[in-house]
Amino acid sequence: MTVKTGNERPIIRLEKLSKDYGDFRALHGVDLEVRKGEVLAIIGPSGSGKSTLLRCVNYIEPPTSGTLHIADVTVRAGVDDTTRKIRALRANLGMVFQSFNLFPHISVLRNVALPQERVLGRSRAEAEEVARTLLGRVGLANKADQFPVRCSGGQQQRIAIARALALGPKVMLFDEPTSALDPELGLEVLSVMRELAESGMTMLVVTHEMGFAENVSDHALIMAEGRIIEEGPSRELIRNPQTERARQFLRAVNER
Ligand SMILES: Nc1ncnc2c1ncn2[C@@H]1O[C@H](COP(=O)(O)OP(=O)(O)O)[C@@H](O)[C@H]1O
Ligand SMILES: [Mg+2]
User: Where would I find the beta strands (DSSP E) of 90-218?
Assistant: First the structure.
């Protein structure tokens, strides 16, 4: 375990973040702070707004209202969320989804190199050098020249992690990165995520993996119906929830 002093300043601060889909309010004025180097597990029942929260943080979904402070960028939803600001905000964030979305027709190496060339303007040689380093870091140096289809789901998700890291994010967002994987393949992804956490990366992780939440994340929050209903140090929160709704959810997870 990394020792975290807990006095780092927040790298993410959300104030009263709300999201409406038509008449339906999916997020109800969420306030949240995440400190540099912190790993936050986001748990809660299906439909509680976990994905919406992550998608609003990087503006895949524009929040309806509220303010986001992400590293050095402040965006007030609906007020000054210009294209330029959203681009600056996204430059701080890497995201990994349940589905890996690799390009099937180019090699693993090119999958990790291409976004660097497009987004950061790196030369092909430089991007491929970074890609090789990161593929080594996720344990896939030997897959660089293969096509993604020759890789298992767990390997493909590790490639997706390398691809996101290659853009140099300050914060990584994970939305159920192991849900589509067989348990054993999920473990190899979780192990890469644990190493990333230990290297000091700030991470927001939506997950149903309670082992990961308890042992790797520093803090956890439980969402229900678009609100954060409980938050605190992970182990305490998961072992000793205070609300009936949280207890009910955790019982259901444990009985899976
Ligand atoms: N694009 C959308 N349009 C309308 N409703 C949506 C959309 N995306 C999500 N929702 C609704 O918002 C709520 C929260 O969804 P989501 O954030 O995906 O939950 P979770 O990730 O916790 O399962 C759900 O009721 C869902 O049906
Ligand atoms: Mg979701």
Answer: 93-96, 171-175, 202-206
Query: From the CB of 178, is ligand 1 less than 6 Å away?
Result: no
Q: Which class is domain 1-92+172-256?
A: alpha beta
Q: For residue 45, which atom of ligand 1 is closest to its CA?
A: 22
- Ligand number with the minimum distance to the CA of 42: 1
pTM metric for this prediction: 0.96
Ligand 2 centroid to 50 CA: how many Å? 5
103 in contact with ligand 1, CB cutoff 6 A: no
Ligand 1 near 122 CB (within 6 A): no
pLDDT at 52: 98
pLDDT digits (tens, 9 = 90+) for 231-241: 999 999 999 99
For the chain, domain boundaries: 1-92+172-256, 102-168
Q: With 60 as the cut, is the pLDDT of residue 36 above it?
A: yes
Mean pLDDT of 173-178: 97
What H or E segment, with its residue span, contains residue 239? helix 234-239
How many secondary structure helices (H) and strands (E) does the chain include? 9, 10
Helix (H, G, I), strand (E, B) or coil at 216: coil
Ligand 2 ion local residues (Cβ < 5 A): 51
